């Protein structure tokens, strides 16, 4: 199954700090790390390492960090024939603070990611229409996300949308989404429901269904993921681990979820697979460096369930 990821590519500049600084506060940090990131790129890498046949559509700058990112994609076996490089914009950069508890604070300069225009989506029309599943996020121009979703919808190609960073979305777009994967704060922005537990997650999911979304998966950190689909609502527990950096946990979840769904796994089993991958990722520092291999995910599942099921 061909997995197509459309989205952002950034280079993350990470500083480990005792805690996230308050406004106006300077904190002396510890380790500095530069790592490949960007929500789209993270999801593409996570999907590839989990065994997916992945093509990535993105826009990078004609600079050194863009070249390094491309080298990383090639190493992971991702098809980058649809990547473009913008001569007028630098590649995207994210500045990330990671606290001692694993939580993070992130600011992103989108750069060339903003050059992923609807025209570029249209120029890749045949690639989109020949894919088996489409994965997107919101670090690219919203009109480009809408254009790609429209193309996929016209061919009944399943669309996974991770609505992050959070922003309002139209019903016209949501009606084209097969699986929506917000976290608690993103679900709140889209529905007005403060998501704190299973009951409130169910209310938010119900409102998203009414707006046209097929399946809703609300990721709830270490607690796991709330799943709402044709078989009703259920909470899929997370895996207890000691967090080091939660930066790319959601991206790893989405990339590996796409692989499991593309393989035909039932929704709940696919979410368990993605939960396992996300749990592994938070035990490692950095975005793409944290994405686990297929073997690591299966070992985590086997340790939890004493089988690969």
List keywords for this structure.
single chain; eight-stranded mixed β-sheet
Q: Nutshell version of this structure?
A:
It contains 11 helices and 14 strands. It has helices spanning 39-49, 64-75, 118-123, 125-129, 142-154, 171-174, 184-191, 198-210, 249-262, 267-281, 294-305, and strands spanning 2-6, 10-16, 32-37, 53-57, 59-61, 84-86, 92-98, 104-109, 133-136, 159-161, 179-180, 215-219, 224-229, 232-237.
Can you describe what's shown?
This protein has 309 residues and is of the alpha/beta class. The protein contains 11 helices and 14 strands. It has an 8-stranded mixed β-sheet with strand order 4-1-9-10-11-12-13-14, sandwiched between helices. Strands 3-2-7-8 form a 4-stranded mixed β-sheet. Helix 9 (249-262) packs antiparallel against helix 10. The longest helix has 15 residues, at 267-281.
Lateral arrangement of strands in the main beta sheet: 4-1-9-10-11-12-13-14
Task: List unreliable stretches of 5+ residues.
Answer: none
- Number of helical segments? 11
Q: Kindly, what is the distance between the CA atoms of the first and last residues, rounded to a whole number of angstroms?
A: 21 Å
Proportion of residues in β-strands: 15-25%
Quick one: overall form?
A: globular
Instruction: Characterize the largest beta sheet: strand count, sense, and whether it forms a barrel.
Output: 8 strands, mixed
The share of residues in helices is 25-40%
The topology string of helices and strands comes to EEEHEEHEEEHHEHEHEHHEEEHHH
Q: What oligomeric state do the depicted chains represent?
A: single chain
What radius of gyration results from the CA coordinates?
18 Å
Mean pLDDT: 94
Number of strands: 14
Which class do the helix and strand fractions yield?
A: alpha/beta
